[in-house]
Amino acid sequence: MRTAGGPSRFATQAAAICSLAAELDAGGVVLGMPYLADGRRSRECELVEAAAERLREAAPTGLRLLLWDETWTTRLALGPGRHSARRQHWGHAAAACLLLQDVLGAAEVLAYAERRNGRVEC
C-alpha cells in the first residue's frame, strides 16, 4: 500500500515490527483486543483485526500473531483516580507489560499441562 508521498504509515510500521521480530528471533507478535467492559466487541476491535490482517500479509512466514483481550489492562496499570498525561503515557506502557505477562502466564500453564498430560484440552 502506497500513498503519493511514499510508503503508507502502516507499511512502515509493519516493516519495523517484522524487522524487530526477526532481530529478536521472536516467534510471534501480540496485539491487544480492546473489548468493552461487558465483553462485547468494540469498534476498535475491528481496527485491530484489520491491522493484524495487514501485518499478517507483510510478515514473513512463521511469525505468529496473537490477538489477546486487553480489557482493564490500562485501568489496572494506572490504578484508581485521575491521572496526568505523563502518567497515562507510562500507564499504557505498563498496560502492555501486563498484557504480555498475561500471555506468558497462559503459555506457561499450557506448556505445563501438555508436559503433564501429553496434550492440552480446551
Spatial separation of the terminal alpha carbons: 38 Å
Strand order of the largest sheet: 1-2
Percentage beta strand:
5-15%
User: How many domains make up the coordinates?
Assistant: 2
Q: How can the largest sheet be summarized?
A: 2 strands, antiparallel
Number of helices: 4
Give the overall shape, derived from the CA principal axes: globular
How many E-type strands? 4
Nearest-angstrom radius of gyration?
17 Å
H and E order: EEHEHEHH
Poorly predicted runs: 1-5
State mean pLDDT (0 to 100 scale): 85
- Structural category: alpha+beta
Question: How much helix is in the residues?
Answer: 55-70%
Protein name: YqgF/RNase H-like domain-containing protein
Pfam families: RuvX
Organism: Emiliania huxleyi (strain CCMP1516)
InterPro entries: RNaseH-like_sf (IPR012337), YqgF (IPR005227), YqgF/RNaseH-like_dom_sf (IPR037027)
Describe the protein's architecture and organization:
Mean pLDDT is 85; it is low at 1-5. The protein has four helices and four strands. It is α+β, with helices and mostly antiparallel strands. The relative contact order is 0.12. The chain has two domains: 1-71, no CATH class; 72-122, no CATH class.
